[in-house]
Design brief:
two-stranded antiparallel ribbon; 9 strands; globular; disordered N terminus
Length: 365
């Protein structure tokens, strides 16, 4: 698969965004203007992020982050971006838990001002484990840390999940419930099937992804467990740290009621995804960090709940990630940054590890 160095992350003009943001802000806070507007180089391919300062004698906060729903004409990664849902989730977590989240300032549901709905939050200073190049590669602050420092960060990450799952009353997260029949886990998987169908509409199917769905059915938990509020994108790359302690938990667009193992599986597998890339390139990576056995044991100590059916949940995480990877690959094809290979499964960066999970050999290796 021939690709550009990095996939395109935006189709919007930064200068036009700055002008329109300044006009919007002035209407909300008379006399204020947006200053120092920047689009981070690490901007993702889902919601877009803008950083700016409020130039005003008495601003509610000085430095802000704006999360803007993806441009609907730009071959989006997800079929919809519900900013009101994210805003309400952040408010719920802030009010009902001690999990640190950014302070939300404004929600704009009218697409007129910037071309899509958005929310504005206070910016939290700190550092985030990098995705590009991944923190498992040499040359970044987390890789250079001591074993004790990484242990501190790992403990804090598992602690975030334990507190989130235990502190939010399930009834208060019902606005996030996914549609369809069955329990929360069945609805969660059904939503992923619908997402996959949207990704491949008019395009080549992925036999590997479909085999993974079939394998899920064979491994389906006898007792999925009571649903809790799950973060959805539970990985250390979505946490701002002061030193090695979390000060802000980001990216709540995939939050939903589900068994707690859905978050645990995502945390464990997303680290393994980066670790596999690193060892595949000839580096050692961080083999003792966020290990499955350590995460499961730590979570059990903190909550009294021993994680169950983790072969199912780590496979489910790898499957969910594969669908996102396939959509991103087809997005690159759309923009002329890649060509479709004869085997569409090779568009999935972790196709070898996903296949090993389907075959039941991954964790034995």
């Amino acid at each position: 698969m021939a690709t550009a160095p990095r996939p395109r992350t935006t189709t919007r003009d930064p200068g036009e965004l700055t002008r329109r943001l300044t006009a919007w802000l002035g209407a909300r806070l008379p006399g204020a203007r947006a200053a120092g507007v920047t689009v981070p180089a690490s901007n993702g391919m889902s919601s877009e992020t803008l950083l700016f300062d409020i130039d005003h004698p008495r601003p509610p906060v000085r430095s802000c982050v704006l999360r803007l729903a993806a441009d609907p004409s730009a071959y989006t990664v997800f079929p919809e971006y519900d900013m009101a849902r994210q805003y309400r989730t952040l408010k719920l977590v802030a009010e009902r838990t001690d999990v640190p989240v950014p302070r939300v300032l404004w929600l704009e549901e009218d697409p007129g001002p910037l071309g899509a709905p958005f929310l504005v939050m206070a910016r939290v200073a700190g550092r985030v484990p990098p995705d590009v190049m991944p923190y498992t590669y040499e040359g970044n602050w987390l890789h250079a840390a001591s074993d004790a420092e990484r242990e501190q960060l790992e403990a804090a990450m598992v602690g975030l999940l334990a507190r989130l799952h235990g502190q939010v009353p399930a009834a208060e997260a019902e606005f996030l419930a996914l549609p369809g029949p069955g329990d929360a886990l069945r609805r969660h998987v059904t939503a992923q099937r619908a997402y996959y169908a949207w990704v491949i509409d008019g395009l080549a199917r992925s036999p590997l992804i479909e085999a993974a769905f079939d394998r899920l059915e064979q491994l389906w938990p006898r007792e999925p467990g009571e649903p809790v509020l799950t973060w959805g994108d539970a990985r250390i790359g979505n946490v701002v740290h002061d030193g090695f302690e979390p000060v802000a938990v980001l990216d709540w667009e995939m939050a939903a009621p589900a068994p707690r193992e859905v978050d645990l599986g995502w945390t464990i597998y997303l680290h393994r995804f980066f670790q596999d890339l690193t060892t595949g390139s000839g580096q050692r990576g961080l083999p003792d960090f966020l290990r499955r056995d350590r995460v499961e044991a730590r979570y059990a100590r903190l909550t009294g709940h021993t994680p169950r059916d983790m072969d199912f949940h780590t496979l489910y995480a790898a499957l969910r990630h594969a669908i996102v990877m396939l959509r991103i690959a087809y997005r690159q094809v759309h923009f002329g940054e890649a060509a479709v290979p004869a085997d569409p499964d090779t568009l999935i960066l972790h196709h070898d590890s996903l296949r090993a999970m389907v075959q039941g050999t991954y964790w034995a290796g």
